[in-house]
TrEMBL record:
GO terms for molecular function: actin binding; microtubule binding. GO terms for cellular component: cytosol; dendrite; microtubule; microtubule associated complex; neuronal cell body; synapse. This is MAP1B protein. It comes from Bucorvus abyssinicus. It comes from the Eukaryota. The gene is Map1b_0. One of its GO terms (biological process) is regulation of microtubule depolymerization.
Length: 130
Protein backbone atom coordinates (compact mmCIF):
# COMPACT_ATOMS: atom_id res chain seq x y z
CA UNK A 1 0.00 0.00 0.00
CA UNK A 2 1.07 3.58 -0.55
CA UNK A 3 4.60 4.21 -1.75
CA UNK A 4 6.04 0.82 -0.78
CA UNK A 5 8.71 -0.28 -3.25
CA UNK A 6 9.42 -3.94 -3.80
CA UNK A 7 13.07 -4.75 -4.32
CA UNK A 8 13.67 -6.78 -7.44
CA UNK A 9 15.92 -9.78 -6.83
CA UNK A 10 18.77 -10.34 -9.25
CA UNK A 11 19.62 -13.77 -7.82
CA UNK A 12 19.16 -16.78 -10.05
CA UNK A 13 16.16 -18.73 -8.77
CA UNK A 14 16.87 -22.26 -7.61
CA UNK A 15 16.29 -24.97 -10.16
CA UNK A 16 17.46 -28.41 -11.15
CA UNK A 17 21.14 -28.83 -12.00
CA UNK A 18 22.34 -29.16 -15.58
CA UNK A 19 25.11 -31.68 -16.22
CA UNK A 20 27.65 -31.03 -18.99
CA UNK A 21 30.99 -32.46 -20.00
CA UNK A 22 32.79 -29.18 -20.66
CA UNK A 23 31.90 -25.60 -19.61
CA UNK A 24 33.64 -22.35 -20.44
CA UNK A 25 33.16 -20.09 -17.42
CA UNK A 26 31.52 -16.98 -18.93
CA UNK A 27 33.05 -13.52 -19.33
CA UNK A 28 36.68 -14.46 -18.59
CA UNK A 29 35.67 -15.82 -15.18
CA UNK A 30 34.57 -12.40 -13.98
CA UNK A 31 32.48 -12.28 -10.79
CA UNK A 32 29.92 -9.93 -12.36
CA UNK A 33 28.44 -12.89 -14.24
CA UNK A 34 29.30 -15.99 -12.23
CA UNK A 35 28.52 -16.82 -8.61
CA UNK A 36 27.82 -19.79 -6.33
CA UNK A 37 24.41 -20.38 -7.93
CA UNK A 38 26.11 -20.89 -11.30
CA UNK A 39 28.21 -23.74 -9.93
CA UNK A 40 25.31 -25.23 -7.97
CA UNK A 41 23.30 -25.47 -11.19
CA UNK A 42 25.88 -25.87 -13.98
CA UNK A 43 27.79 -29.04 -13.14
CA UNK A 44 30.59 -30.18 -15.38
CA UNK A 45 33.51 -32.57 -15.51
CA UNK A 46 35.67 -29.77 -16.96
CA UNK A 47 35.57 -25.99 -16.48
CA UNK A 48 37.71 -23.73 -18.67
CA UNK A 49 38.95 -20.75 -16.63
CA UNK A 50 40.11 -17.95 -18.90
CA UNK A 51 41.26 -14.46 -18.15
CA UNK A 52 44.64 -12.89 -17.78
CA UNK A 53 43.83 -9.34 -16.70
CA UNK A 54 44.46 -8.67 -13.03
CA UNK A 55 43.24 -5.06 -13.37
CA UNK A 56 39.82 -6.35 -14.49
CA UNK A 57 39.93 -9.13 -11.87
CA UNK A 58 39.92 -11.85 -14.51
CA UNK A 59 39.94 -14.58 -13.46
CA UNK A 60 38.18 -13.57 -10.29
CA UNK A 61 39.14 -15.08 -6.95
CA UNK A 62 35.44 -14.81 -6.02
CA UNK A 63 34.52 -17.05 -8.98
CA UNK A 64 37.10 -19.65 -8.00
CA UNK A 65 35.84 -19.58 -4.40
CA UNK A 66 32.27 -19.88 -5.72
CA UNK A 67 33.26 -23.12 -7.44
CA UNK A 68 34.38 -24.55 -4.11
CA UNK A 69 31.23 -23.41 -2.32
CA UNK A 70 28.90 -24.53 -5.09
CA UNK A 71 30.52 -27.94 -5.57
CA UNK A 72 30.41 -28.57 -1.82
CA UNK A 73 26.62 -28.63 -2.19
CA UNK A 74 26.51 -31.27 -4.94
CA UNK A 75 25.00 -34.59 -3.93
CA UNK A 76 27.87 -36.52 -5.55
CA UNK A 77 31.61 -36.03 -5.38
CA UNK A 78 32.33 -36.41 -9.10
CA UNK A 79 35.80 -35.48 -10.37
CA UNK A 80 36.04 -31.90 -11.65
CA UNK A 81 38.99 -30.56 -13.62
CA UNK A 82 39.77 -26.86 -13.98
CA UNK A 83 41.59 -25.88 -17.15
CA UNK A 84 43.18 -22.44 -16.85
CA UNK A 85 43.99 -20.77 -20.17
CA UNK A 86 46.69 -18.57 -18.59
CA UNK A 87 49.09 -18.81 -15.71
CA UNK A 88 47.86 -15.99 -13.48
CA UNK A 89 48.83 -14.84 -10.01
CA UNK A 90 45.20 -15.18 -8.88
CA UNK A 91 45.03 -18.79 -10.04
CA UNK A 92 48.36 -19.69 -8.40
CA UNK A 93 47.42 -18.10 -5.05
CA UNK A 94 43.96 -19.69 -5.07
CA UNK A 95 45.45 -23.08 -5.91
CA UNK A 96 47.97 -22.92 -3.07
CA UNK A 97 45.59 -21.50 -0.46
CA UNK A 98 42.72 -23.90 -1.17
CA UNK A 99 44.58 -27.03 -2.25
CA UNK A 100 43.34 -29.13 0.66
CA UNK A 101 39.72 -28.15 0.04
CA UNK A 102 40.16 -28.88 -3.67
CA UNK A 103 41.31 -32.39 -2.79
CA UNK A 104 38.37 -32.89 -0.43
CA UNK A 105 35.96 -31.82 -3.19
CA UNK A 106 37.69 -33.92 -5.87
CA UNK A 107 38.79 -30.88 -7.90
CA UNK A 108 41.95 -31.03 -9.98
CA UNK A 109 43.64 -28.03 -11.61
CA UNK A 110 45.22 -29.01 -14.91
CA UNK A 111 48.61 -27.54 -15.64
CA UNK A 112 49.72 -28.04 -19.21
CA UNK A 113 53.32 -28.34 -20.23
CA UNK A 114 52.39 -29.07 -23.86
CA UNK A 115 52.78 -26.45 -26.56
CA UNK A 116 51.15 -26.34 -29.98
CA UNK A 117 52.97 -24.53 -32.75
CA UNK A 118 50.93 -23.30 -35.71
CA UNK A 119 52.61 -21.17 -38.37
CA UNK A 120 54.16 -18.22 -36.49
CA UNK A 121 52.29 -18.76 -33.23
CA UNK A 122 52.72 -21.10 -30.27
CA UNK A 123 50.44 -21.57 -27.29
CA UNK A 124 49.82 -23.99 -24.39
CA UNK A 125 47.47 -26.87 -25.03
CA UNK A 126 45.86 -29.80 -23.29
CA UNK A 127 44.03 -32.89 -24.44
CA UNK A 128 40.59 -33.70 -23.07
CA UNK A 129 38.90 -37.01 -23.73
CA UNK A 130 35.12 -36.95 -23.44
Amino acid sequence: PGNTKVAKSTAVPPGPPVYLDLVYIPNHSNSKNVDVEFFKRVRSFYYVVSGNDSAAEEPSRAVLDSLLEGKAQWETNMQVTLIPTHDSEVMREWYQETHEKQQDLNIMVLASSSTVVMQDESFPACKIEL
